[in-house]
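ugh ok fine here u go
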Amino acid sequence: MKRTEPPKPETTKDGDTSRKGASRKRSDRGAETRAQLIEAALDIFGRLGYEGATTRQIAKAANANLAAIVYHFGSKEALHLAVAEHVVKSILARIGPTLAVVATPEAAATPQSARDALHRLIGTVADVLLGSAEAERWARFIVREQLQPTAAFDVIYGYMDHAISTALRLVSVVLDVPEDDDLRLRAITVLGQVLVFRVAQTLVLRRMNWTVIGEPERKAIKKVILQNLDAILEGTKS
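structure:
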């Protein structure tokens, strides 16, 4: 009787598939732990600042070992920078497509197209920053870096400067005037009026007798912001 051999497990040139599967699982767990550490650090750095936050607090909030921070990031400072990059990437994932469109030459081809592009940009920023609880944590982290800047501010500034520079270029086209300090201040004001509704949300809710900033409230805020945008643009002509 012919003896049959048991089927052999499939292998690849890299070795046994079981080892490869185990390696993939470890990699997935590692990525999950890294993401949990970043989310926990975003919350704690935002509430306590860089100096006030401790790696022990962050590891506990992420349900991870303290050594995991060293393994994935190397240091508290590197983790802080990783959080800044996470914030910027998260915002750009939502605002980036609009920013790319309004930064094209076509968007600034005429004063009217530039005005339309500016409305689109500011409206998108309002939707993103006022549209989720996650944005509140981004704003808290960014405000901390404004008040107590660290190396992470350079990461955040790259995104903010791109948005402001794009808005400034569009304002310059709308008004057919060269960029100067006055226009720079107005471009910052245009974007800043969106941020105040996130940063000063507690004041806004109490003064408006709102419990949350939901869809109806966001629409009302956007309407006023865009009206203010046109008033700012008209004011530069006087």
